[in-house]
Each structure stands twice: as structure tokens, then as C-alpha cells.
Design brief:
Layout lengths: L1 E6 L3 H10 L5 E7 L3 H11 L3 E3 L13 E4 L3 H13 L3 E4 L7 H14 L3 E3 L7 H11 L6 E9 L15 H4 L4 H17 L3 E9 L4 E5 L5 E5 L5 E8 L4 E7 L8 E8 L3 E5 L5 E5 L6 E4 L7 H4 L12 H20 L11 H20 L3 E2 L3
Parallel strand pairs: 1-2, 1-4, 2-3, 4-5, 5-6, 7-12
Antiparallel strand pairs: 7-13, 8-11, 8-17, 9-10, 11-12, 13-14, 14-15, 15-16
Helix pairs in contact: 1-9, 3-4, 4-10, 5-7, 7-10
């Protein structure tokens, strides 16, 4: 039995908890959060024996094998580093840390300690996305010409909307690019099978003054220095060009991820709001829509389609697919074997920080910037 501690029990921490309950051979044995009351309620509900507000009490705990780090951004590096040094395997939320210097340190530590790592780039674990990536890599689109898309939300539309991601001291130097842009360009690189090598960015803080709620029902005005909108031109290593837009002020858009890939023979499009569908575009015949299907997908991707054709999977199922790959890889690692399935590990999390920093530099300097290693 693999024993797990979850640190941070906000929205995403609860997603981790409920998904882990579906994974055979693992057990959540500890919860870490800011307040004991809510922790004790969750622990009682799910039969979890340990709760604490101090994650350091678990560092030398031999009963803990894996840490799921679901804390805010400013704690990612500190928590990840501490548990890697303690020899624990780590599954972290993104961004991996707040700077590429920090992420590089984590990658090197994890390699030195021989621990398994992963970061929660879960959107690529929808069956239709896995199928799209396979078709592109099998050259079914021909040569990839362009990659375009967006990730749009509206939860920061009003100046009274507040979240810690708007505070640079917690979030780091970026809001929307690091928060949802990183999901988009990780997804695009996975689908295309090629890395982003150069960026040209235009960013904006649309609402530079916002209202932070106070306990008495009032608010305090505070300045915002991180972006809530961005558009970025892209160059890929395979010669493809592209562009994407991210915004958290797009009224009516809740979690609208859109990726288009256009090749010399055909095209593919995946949209998160219709996540079970894969649009396939042709010039000389009718376009197609493939529904996720364990019968109709390629052999390598159909294992992610867990339900019969016509029964759409959802966000929790994408997370489940990623967790399944992670814990299968961990089981093999314990046997001295290596998984044949590539995980979004800390090295990938490091590269996403490198892309984010290149985007920020491009906006500041108003020029193309290469993504360095």
C-alpha cells in the first residue's frame, strides 16, 4: 500500500483527495491545512487518521510515501524542496515554483534523491487529447503548420473579484500566463510533440486597482501588478508557428480551452467545453467529429477512454488518468523498472517556468525572446 499526505485542502486539494480514493493500492493517511476544524471534518468523512497544520511534522514520518502539494504558489518551492530532501515522491500543483532558478533546483534535487515527480497538467489526459496527440505524431495531419488557441475565463471580470493569484508576493511575477497560460502551452506542446522555442508577447493588467474584501463586509483598494490578459506569438522547434490568448475577464467563459492544429493534409481541434469531441478538418471531403471511444480510438490512446462510447468523461476523470499513470510508474519504480509512459514531471514544470519567464521578458522588451534551457 502506498501512503499519501495531501498538503493544502482548498478546491484543488479536495479534487486530489476525491480522485485518490478511486486509485487502487493507495491510501491517504494525512491531511495538512491552515485550520484544524475543516481538516478534522474532512478526516472524519474519509477516515483519514492524521491531520496537522504543520507539514514539517511529516518530513521524517516513515508512514508517508508520497506528497500531493496543493498549496498556494508561494509555498510550492518550500514544500517540494523539503519533501524531496526527505526522500518522498512528489505530485505538485503548478507552477512548480515562482522562478526558474527554484524549479531548476527542484529538478536537480529530485534527480539526486531518485524520487518520482509529477505536476498537475491534467488536461492532456482527456481521451480526445491523447488521440489528437497520437494522430499528429503519426503524421496523419502531415506537416504541422500552425497551432492556435485560447484559454478564457471570467471569474476576475469585476474589480470586486479577489484571489491570492492577484498578489505578486504570493503568485509570483505572473498571474494569467502562469496560472492558465501554462496549461495551454503545455497542452499544445504535448499535442504537437514539439517544444516552444521562441515567444513574442503582449500582456495587460486591465484592472490595475481592485477591491479586496475585509472581514467587516467592506473592502480595501489595492494595486495589481500582475497581468490578467495576454496574447503570445509562438515558434515551435518543428518549424510550426502559432498564437494563443488567455484572459480571466472574458464574460461568459468559465473554463474555455481551445486548441487548433493545422497541418499540410488535415487539421484537429479540441475544446474543453466539448471535451469528449475531437474535430477533424479536411479540405476535399466532409469534416468529422470523433467522440472519445474505447472502440474507435487508436490502441495507445483508447486506454484513457474508461467508459463505453457515448458516455462522456469529465475533469475528474482526466485527473484520475494522470494519477493512474503516476502511481503505475511509482509501482514500477519500486520494482527497479521504468514506465514507458512519459509523465509531466518536474523537468516539464521547469520548462513551463522558462516559457513563462520568456513571455514576461518579451512583453517588457517588446521583442521576440528565445526560451532558454
Amino acid at each position: 500500500m502506498t501512503r499519501i499526505a495531501i498538503i493544502g485542502l482548498g478546491y484543488i486539494g479536495k479534487v486530489h483527495l476525491e480522485t485518490l480514493l478511486r486509485i487502487p493500492g493507495v491510501q491517504v493517511v494525512a491531511l495538512v491545512g491552515r485550520r484544524m476544524g475543516p481538516l478534522e471534518v474532512l478526516a472524519a468523512k474519509y477516515g483519514i487518521p492524521k491531520v496537522t497544520t504543520n507539514y514539517r511534522t511529516l518530513l521524517e514520518d516513515p508512514s508517508i510515501d508520497v506528497i500531493h502539494n496543493c498549496t498556494p504558489n508561494d509555498l510550492h518551492f518550500e514544500v517540494n524542496r523539503a519533501f524531496i530532501q526527505a526522500g518522498k515522491h512528489i505530485f505538485s500543483e503548478k507552477p512548480l515554483a515562482r522562478t526558474s532558478q527554484e524549479t531548476r533546483t527542484l529538478v536537480e534535487l529530485a534527480k539526486g534523491k531518485n524520487v518520482l515527480t509529477a505536476i498537475n497538467f491534467c488536461y492532456r489526459y482527456y481521451p480526445a487529447v491523447q488521440e489528437a496527440a497520437l494522430r499528429i505524431r503519426n503524421k496523419e495531419l502531415g506537416e504541422v503548420y500552425t497551432v492556435m488557441g485560447s484559454y478564457l475565463q471570467d471569474w476576475l471580470l469585476y474589480d470586486t473579484d479577489y484571489d491570492w493569484r492577484l498578489e505578486q508576493s504570493i503568485a509570483g511575477n505572473s498571474n494569467v500566463i502562469a496560472d492558465i497560460g501554462s496549461h495551454w502551452f503545455n497542452l499544445a506542446q504535448f499535442m504537437v510533440g514539439s517544444q516552444i522555442t521562441e515567444v513574442m508577447a503582449d500582456l495587460k493588467t486591465t484592472l490595475p486597482i481592485r477591491k479586496k474584501p475585509e472581514g467587516d463586509g467592506g473592502f480595501t483598494e489595492y494595486p495589481v501588478t500582475v497581468e490578467d490578459y495576454g496574447s503570445v506569438l509562438l515558434h515551435f522547434a518543428n518549424g510550426a508557428c502559432g498564437v494563443f490568448t488567455v484572459s480571466q475577464l472574458a464574460a461568459g467563459k468559465k473554463c474555455a480551452i481551445d486548441v487548433h492544429v493545422y497541418g499540410s493534409q488535415s487539421a484537429l481541434r479540441w475544446n474543453h467545453e466539448r471535451s469528449a469531441e475531437l474535430w477533424i478538418g479536411h479540405r476535399d471531403r466532409a469534416n468529422e467529429v470523433l467522440m472519445e471511444s474505447p472502440q474507435l480510438q487508436h490502441r495507445e490512446s483508447k486506454r484513457y477512454a474508461l467508459l463505453p462510447t457515448g458516455h462522456p468523461m469529465g475533469y475528474h476523470d482526466a485527473v484520475f488518468n494522470l494519477f493512474t499513470d503516476f502511481y503505475n510508474a511509482l509501482a514500477l519504480k519500486k520494482q527497479g523498472k521504468e514506465s514507458s509512459v512519459a509523465l509531466p514531471d518536474f523537468s516539464e514544470g521547469h520548462r513551463e517556468l522558462m516559457i513563462t519567464e520568456a513571455i514576461l521578458q518579451s512583453h517588457r522588451e517588446k521583442r521576440w525572446v528565445q526560451v532558454t534551457e
